[in-house]
Amino acid sequence: MRQPSLIEAMTAAEVPDLPPRAWEDLLSQARRSLLIGRWACRLADRGQLDRVPEGPRRHLASAMTVADRVQVEMRLEADRVQRALQRAGVRCVLLKGAAYLCGRLPAARGRVFGDIDILVPRDALARVEGTLLGGGWVAGAVDAYDQRYYREWMHELPPLTHIHGDSTIDVHHTITAPTSAFRVDGQRLLAAARPVDAEGRFWVLQPVDMVLHSAVHLFQEGEFDHGLRDLLDMAELLRHFESAEPGFWPALFARARELRLERPLHHALFHIERLLGPRVPPAWRSAQDALRPPWLQHRLMAWLLGVALRPRHPSTTLPLEPLALWLLYLRSHWLRMPLHLLLPHLARKAWRRRIAAAGDTAKA
Fold it and tell me: What's the pTM?
């Protein structure tokens, strides 16, 4: 019997009948992909968790408990961030996992994360950073080069960690690097942000911007350890917003054109459809087709991302996977930085890795 893929197991109408080793591999894949809590919650919501064999069921139930505890902790951390931003006179606009959680979106169900991502006006960065530092957040060990890298070339400040917690806060002023091929004016996103409740303590991006941010984050960053989770986040967002937001699909395609994020949206929709089936209504398929890049580029990226958007696990490794991930890593840097910045940056990173490896060898 063929072992189902993790996606097949998570989306199957019935609990798969598998031998113990197959369950072990699937659970390990889900754990590495940060999807085990989501899988457990799906089974519980369908009333199917009790049909899972006892050993795997214990792991799934434990993952659900962990996810609940993490989300309680992250809500408390979001509250602490909101109070700090209130002192700075800035709205608390949450991004990614914190936005899904505090916005009570289905994508938060069973999701674990350790960062609070916020979006603030660029001209408020110094005030926000000073307030956070005064409120107990501290910067990690960041040298002068990294300080310049973040503050001049990136869309966020160096990460900050609170002295009384392990979570990290990432302060963004937009969603893409200013030197990126996909430049987005953060102020346009902030202008369309929405409060999640009547009190206006927390704000999130408008639905179409939330989807586009998820897409550009995944397909520009070049890190795919949790890429499958991020893709499923987008699938959940699409499913929810198309029923909750009148005119969602035309607004999504129009906003992608406005922000020049057609290419990341294409990759997202293509791979969601590849793994989960069509998501775009027939009336808007022509708008989806218009996003497609030239044939050769489309086929190459379809292969590269098809390899990358899989669990990072020995049972799923493909022969050319390291090459595909390396090419995507180079592509991500090419998209983020012009050549005169990129080459010295990559050379410096390679030198750092070599020094770190030499240090590890000396310690051994």
Answer: 0.91
